[in-house]
Amino acid sequence: MTLIDLSRDIHHRMTGFPTHPPVVIAPFGTHDEIKEADGVTFSSATLSLALSDHAGTHVDAPRHFDARPGALGIDEVPLENFFTEAVCLDLSHKPLKSDITIADLEAAVDAAGVDIRPRDTVLLYTGFFDRCYGTPAFQTDFQGLTKASAEWLGGHRITMFGVEPISPGRPGGNNYEVHLVCRDMGFTHIEGLVNLDKLVGKGRFRFIGFPLKIRGGTGSPIRAVAWLED
Questions:
Q1: Residue 38: what pLDDT?
Q2: Within the chain, how many helices (H) and strands (E) appear?
Q3: Does the reported pTM lie above 0.85?
């Protein structure tokens, strides 16, 4: 068994979606504070965290993009949705600021020699993180799905798909349309993945990405992991 970490580090003031709250991490307790109890001297360190439920590598809950009564919060989504079979499609040839089309997805499926099955997680490798992380382009220049290509994925009855950028569609209306496809077709997506290049050509594998149990959460950071059989 090989486990591949697909998650970004969560750190102070990390780059995220520009309209979301920033990640703020600060010391709360330090080893400079010496405590004593029943003759035992010790110290303990803790951090204070303030962050969005869409910080870092995260999954969107239906409640994020579905305003209708009864839309599920992240604590209500079945756990089996976060432990699924998966495939990774190589779209790294796509230029920055370009749309990922149905033809692109079909070609990537053929090249990978895989099929997309009901309840799969589909990961889209674009090479965007390595190209743009740490630059202003990280918030603007990513490749993204269109309404049509998102519907193509949804037509395979997937559980979710995952991308490297901070949103699944190009900035603006395109991105909103992709979210609405998720609402209307009953699946969701992960944003902020890394290390997807390590999955190219690996065929089928297991995806693990359990969310925090945030009551009523519109999403949650996850520790995304690919499980490959040796």
A1: 86
A2: 5, 15
A3: yes
pLDDT for 39 = 87
Q: Which of 124, 194, 117 is nearest to 158 (CA)?
A: 117
Over pLDDT 90: what percentage of the chain?
92
User: Domains in the chain, start-ordered, CATH in brackets?
Assistant: 58-228 (3.50.30.50)
Report the candidate in 157, 148, 170 with the shortest Cα–Cα distance to residue 94: 170
DSSP, collapsed to helix, strand or coil, labels residue 149 as helix
Q: Give the helix/strand (H/E) hosting 89.
A: strand 83-90
- Mean pLDDT in residue range 160-180: 95
DSSP output for 33-44: S-EEETTEEE--
Of the candidates 85, 95, 94, 79, which has an alpha carbon nearest to the alpha carbon of residue 123? 85
| CA–CA separation, 173 and 170 (whole Å) | 8
Alpha-helical (H) ranges within 3-60 are none
Which pair of structure tokens corresponds to residue 8?
A: 């970004």
Report the interhelical angle of 173-185 vs 147-154 (nearest 10°).
20
What single letter denotes the amino acid at residue 70?
Answer: G
Q: Is the pLDDT of residue 110 over 90?
A: yes
Tell me the chain's radius of gyration from C-alpha atoms: 19
List C-alpha distances in Å: 222 to 18, 53, 110, 162. Answer: 20, 10, 30, 12
The rounded distance, in Å, linking the Cα atoms of 21 and 90 is: 31
Helix axes 147-154, 102-112, angle to 10 degrees: 40
